[in-house]
């Protein structure tokens, strides 16, 4: 029971004196305040959403384009082979996308540091459409190994049939690898030589690097050829076992020091020496295996003759010629005697 003091007396609250109505009004007022506070927080939240959504809506409301290009090679670059007989081309797969509601005409521009390029000039895309194309580059045969830049640019030049109000473009940069290849040539300065027994001689071979970059070459006499020559009494020495040569540079000269057999015998003999050069780059990186070239030379070693032995065939020929001449003279004398006898007997 609620009571309050009025003029020194206690009074009881009742519906007649209004105390219950005042308490009810206080409760309602507190509820309204809570409701207004909730509505205010809700309004702030909605306003923040609108503020964040406005830039996004503005961003897609103008023409735009997106370009992506990827290489099919594991290196991620556009690899171009330039060895003789190669395709001399490399390419990247590209995708251009229209991310908005405009009908766009997009221009494709490609630059490749002076290389020949091929790509579509323009591409038309509808709203939220995309298209794929290839960007191809072409190099010259035997071009020096190098790296170059490939730049592909997509630019919106028309949106809904009119020039775009903004600059809308997308660009991709990639690396072009002009691949190295190996190629060589071997030349003998003396492909045939006659030597005497126990004679020293330096055979010279020229090694050419016809690849498109510096390469190191292992040089020497093949195992089979060396084994056969040494079994016959030859001695072989090679001062250098490897040479490094720049691509398409002057040849490198390689010497092979040879000593002929000490005991050749009575007859002449022919021997072969096979020189070989092998590209180290090809052995490490080229899928076809080691690239090599061999050059064979012939060594004619004369036999050992006794003093005067060389004269025997000549003397035999002279004796044969003298016998033929003597026989002819004998035949002539017999003819003369027959003629004299016939003259002495004319009746016969």
Overall description:
There is one protein chain. The protein is 26% helix and 39% strand. It is of the alpha+beta class and 348 residues long. The protein has a five-stranded mixed sheet with strand order 4-11-10-6-8, with no helix packed on it. The longest helix is centred in the first third of the chain and has 41 residues, at 19-59.
In terms of per-residue confidence, which ranges show pLDDT below 50 for 5 or more consecutive residues? 1-19, 53-59, 344-348
Number of strands: 20
Shape descriptor: elongated
Looking at the overall shape, the CATH architecture of the largest domain is Sandwich
Helix-strand string: EEHEEEEEEEEEEEEEHEEEEHEH
Instruction: Provide the CATH topology of the largest domain.
Output: Immunoglobulin-like
The whole-number mean of residue pLDDT values reads 83
Strand order of the largest sheet: 4-11-10-6-8
Task: Give me the number of helical elements.
Answer: 4
Structural domain tally: 4
Q: Which structural category fits the helices and strands?
A: alpha+beta
Beta-sheet strand percentage?
35-45%
Give the termini separation: 205 Å
CATH class of the largest domain: Mainly Beta
What does the largest sheet look like? 5 strands, mixed
User: What Rg, in angstroms, do the CA atoms define?
Assistant: 52 Å
